[in-house]
Amino acid sequence: MASHWILGPGAIGRLLAHSLVPQFAVTLIGRRALSNEQRLTTPEGEQRVQRLNTLTVAQMGSEAQPAPGFVHITTKAMAAEAALESIASQIPPTTTLVLWQNGFLAQPRITQAWPGPVLCATTTQGAYLTGDDGVVHAGRGPTFIGDLTNQHHALAEALAETLSRAHFSASAVGDIRQRLWQKLAVNAAINPLVALHEVHNGELRHEVYSARVEAVVKEVAAIMQAEGIQPPKGEQGEHAWLALVWQVVDNTANNKASMLQDVEAKRPTERGAILGPLMESAKRHQLPCEELVALDQQLSKKETAYASLS
């Protein structure tokens, strides 16, 4: 039975650990010590306390561990490469990595650099932390798994079956690059704005914000076309991307986006992973991206302001 290391005990990392641990050997790894007694609140409000094997990166370096079957990297996008480097000497170079990051920054870099198989996952499972010993499973949704080189479909199918057996609904797909870019497009239209204005997703429907949502989508739609990425429902054009964004806004109206959670906690945001690839693509294809650049600059200013207070 393949064991699973989960590197990054954030919301998705802990949700994944809670899902897998009844059936599989799981080690949850972070930079600082966490209680082994961890609490999960289900979407129905039920609370479960499970004992998880939680270790720090330092402990992993000082105590020999059996090689894992999978290493899931569930850190923020900007921390993924450093997190991998912190344990790389302790795992065989043939180990399968699974990347759970938002955006499209860490995935191509690690896929190119790591000698073993690299799978990418994109999920609509909703979760948020309630301190060092609790995570709330806020909403269920599908997870898609694949690899950017289309060389590891059997591995993706095996992992998807494992996750589904653990009630973490997953499917293997051959178009993970498309799906990552599709999610990136939606995230770019929602996350930066709710983080800047510190509002829940549904408030973007208000007139004070909606015009800017439409301006961002206009730029993003042109970039998606240049990259050969179509909206997931097979429709085409700017109107299809805007309809998708509004659908996600409505479906997640009461959600607090991860970027907003970062701002509230005065942490660096994932603006580089979400806005960065879009701005780079716009530059490469000589497309306008004034709205995306403005969002990036405003978020940078916000991060600098609260970082200077800490």
Describe the fold and architecture.
Catalyzes the NADPH-dependent reduction of ketopantoate into pantoic acid. It comes from Vreelandella salicampi. Pathway: Cofactor biosynthesis; (R)-pantothenate biosynthesis; (R)-pantoate from 3-methyl-2-oxobutanoate: step 2/2. One of its GO terms (cellular component) is cytoplasm. Its EC number is 1.1.1.169. This protein is α/β, with parallel strands linked by helices and 310 residues long. The chain has two domains: 4-174, Rossmann fold, CATH 3.40.50.720; 177-307, N-(1-d-carboxylethyl)-l-norvaline Dehydrogenase, domain 2 (Orthogonal Bundle). The protein has eleven helices and twelve strands. It has helices at residues 11-20, 57-62, 80-87, 106-113, 153-165, 176-197, 207-227, 238-251, 258-264, 271-284, 290-307; strands at 4-7, 26-30, 37-41, 47-51, 53-56, 70-73, 96-99, 118-123, 126-129, 134-139, 143-146, 170-172. The strands form two sheets. It has an eight-stranded mixed β-sheet with strand order 5-2-1-6-7-8-11-12, with helices on both faces. Strands 4-3-10-9 form a four-stranded mixed β-sheet, covered by helices on one side. α3 links the parallel β6 and β7. α6 (176-197) packs antiparallel against α7 (207-227). The radius of gyration is 19 Å and the shape is globular.
Write a compact overview of the structure shown.
The protein has 310 residues and is α/β, with parallel strands linked by helices.
Taking the sheet with the most strands, its summary is: 8 strands, mixed
H/E series: EHEEEEHEHEHEEEEHEHHHHHH
Number of strands: 12
| Fourth CATH level, the homologous superfamily of the largest domain | NAD(P)-binding Rossmann-like Domain
Instruction: Give the tally of structural domains.
Output: 2
| Gap from first CA to last CA | 45 Å
CATH topology of the largest domain: Rossmann fold
Percent strand equals: 15-25%
* Helix run count: 11
Arithmetic mean of pLDDT: 94
User: How is the largest sheet built, in terms of strand order?
Assistant: 5-2-1-6-7-8-11-12
Helix content: 40-55%
Rg (CA only) = 19 Å
The helix/strand class is alpha/beta
By CATH, the architecture of the largest domain is named 3-Layer(aba) Sandwich
What coarse outline follows from CA principal-axis ratios? globular
